[in-house]
Write a structure and sequence with these properties.
4-stranded mixed beta sheet; 501 residues; two-stranded antiparallel sheet; nitrate reductase domain fold; alpha+beta; globular
């Protein structure tokens, strides 16, 4: 067993406002420059929908992530020979129109601020940020589907409706029955990153000290296989510098013990960050588990930071005491491992993402009975059958189709709500509802505290870092610099080399 530490994140979809404050904070800090106009390291999508870039979840189209073959995870896009044969033309590469149609654009605001007399009311015409051409047709953008705009059309291509009949899909996408929720996304900083495995020049790497996945700007040659191989489409090509860029998890901030900018700016307080301990020797085994067992296998991969044997193994691996203390206070550990109320985004991509999501719930009251009281079949709280968001949809999104994992998470959240209501309204604790879902009163109180009342130091448990270290996967460089994943060695890099400019 080799114990490793990973900075992990958790987003509570039940509280996301869709305000894009996180996206604006990230854009202002990192991608507000030429060549990065179309980059949204943090973006907020509306589900159902096909997202940004268009249809990023459809791996039949983009061939991203891994598949399990012969007990090992192998890139869906193909082996190294295939990459070499297509190194100057990648058929799985998303085009610029998949991000912005046809180009990233702004508007001619200068026409609105001029004092020159004009014969008609001035307007701001769309203008390409790449070519400078004006009056370009706008067909797609990062927030094209905001608040379910156009969902009745784009939702038809949403792969998360798999297993739902066309008639049911049409009903769910109709105006009177449509559901939607917000899905904020950043780079998942996976335990088994496909971008690192696919990079021909070995520029993408995963830091050993905290698990942050970065791209070395000096090694990068702009081959862009990280774009097509990442199933979440979070690496971007800077057309000005010719280099690849991606979310760096604001590592200069987390090295100082602060959360990333998008976490700090979140208005809805939906974001959590903490340390997870995992067994690196079992990553391959976990990544090749059957689809229905992926979430369970991932939870088993995460180690118990309260176990004395795990603590000793972590110390032997060089993990510092402040990191072990942070792992014991980590909100992501409790939400994903202990309480099991969060799940990874599309675990079937087999990259083992370090970002987990608490599934969205339904409103407290759903129906009006014949007495004029707002109630549902679950009396005051909805039952799973009353949810507007179909369990099958959430299962396809967060549990590789396993509805049992989603039902367990939502049942525990509903039980916690019923327990708190019994305390506040009835004045008597309803412990039976907790026993039905395997929770204690202490766990329910801790869940409520973390999800509803937690301060910043409870939501963001970020230990300070020291010198950057990375798992060196390319000690023996083969043809074209392909990494040899058979050997690993710890070495040191200068952190400033990974800045995206």
């Amino acid at each position: 067993m080799k114990v490793m530490a990973q900075m992990a994140m958790c987003f509570n979809l039940d509280k996301c406002l869709g305000c894009h404050t996180c996206s604006v904070a990230c854009k202002n800090v990192w991608t507000n420059r030429e060549g990065a106009e179309y980059m949204w390291w943090n973006n907020v999508e509306t589900k159902p929908g096909i997202g940004y870039p268009r249809e990023w979840e459809n791996q039949q189209k983009y061939q991203g992530g891994f598949v399990a073959r012969n007990g090992k995870p192998q890139l869906r896009s193909g082996r190294r020979l295939w990459e070499l044969l297509n190194i100057f033309y990648n058929p799985n590469m998303p085009t610029m129109s998949e991000y912005y149609g046809p180009h990233p654009f702004t508007f001619t605001y200068e026409d609105l601020h001029t004092d020159k007399p004009q014969s008609q009311q001035p307007i701001g015409r769309p203008k390409s940020l790449v070519t400078g051409e004006e009056n370009i047709p706008i067909t797609w953008a990062a927030n094209w589907e905001d608040n379910a705009a156009g969902t009745y059309r784009t939702g038809q291509q949403d792969v998360n409706f798999a297993g739902i009949t066309q008639a049911e899909k049409d009903a769910l996408l109709s105006y009177d029955r449509v559901f939607y929720f917000y899905l904020p996304r950043i780079c998942n900083h996976c335990l088994n990153p496909a971008c690192v495995a696919a990079c021909p020049s070995g520029a993408a790497y995963k830091r050993e000290e905290d698990g942050v996945v970065l791209i070395d700007q000096e090694r990068c040659r702009g081959w862009r296989f990280c774009v097509s191989s990442c199933p979440y489409k979070k690496p971007y090509y800077n057309w000005r510098t010719g280099k690849m860029e991606k979310c760096i998890l604001c590592y200069p901030r987390i090295e100082a013990g602060m959360p990333p900018a998008c976490f700090h700016a979140c208005v809805g307080r939906i974001r959590f960050m903490g340390v997870l301990l995992y067994d690196q020797d079992r990553v391959v085994e976990t990544a090749t588990a059957p689809d229905a067992d992926l979430v369970r296998a991932y939870r088993e991969l995460i180690l118990d930071p309260f176990d004395p044997a795990i603590i000793e193994a972590a110390r032997a691996a060089g993990i510092r005491e402040d990191w072990l203390d942070a792992a014991r206070r980590s909100p992501t550990y409790f939400m994903f491992k202990k309480w099991q109320i969060s799940m990874p985004l599309h675990p079937e991509f087999r990259t083992l993402p370090s970002l987990f999501y608490v599934p969205p719930e339904s409103p407290m009251i759903t129906l009006l009975d014949n007495k004029g009281l707002w109630k549902s079949s679950g009396e005051w709280l909805p039952k799973l059958g009353d949810f507007r968001v179909p369990l099958r949809y959430l299962a396809n999104l967060l549990a590789a189709g396993n509805e049992g994992e989603v039902s367990k998470a939502l049942s525990r959240l509903l039980a916690m709500r019923q327990y708190k209501r019994s305390l506040e309204v009835d004045g008597k604790a309803d412990v039976d509802v907790l026993a039905q879902v395997g929770l204690s009163q202490e766990e329910a109180q801790a869940m409520f505290r973390l999800l509803a009342l937690a301060f910043n130091n409870e939501r963001f448990v970020v230990p300070t870092s020291v010198n950057e270290a990375a798992v060196e996967p390319y000690i023996e460089r083969g043809f074209a610099g392909f990494p040899n994943m058979r050997r690993r060695k710890v070495f040191h890099r200068e952190p400033q080399r990974t800045y995206p400019y």
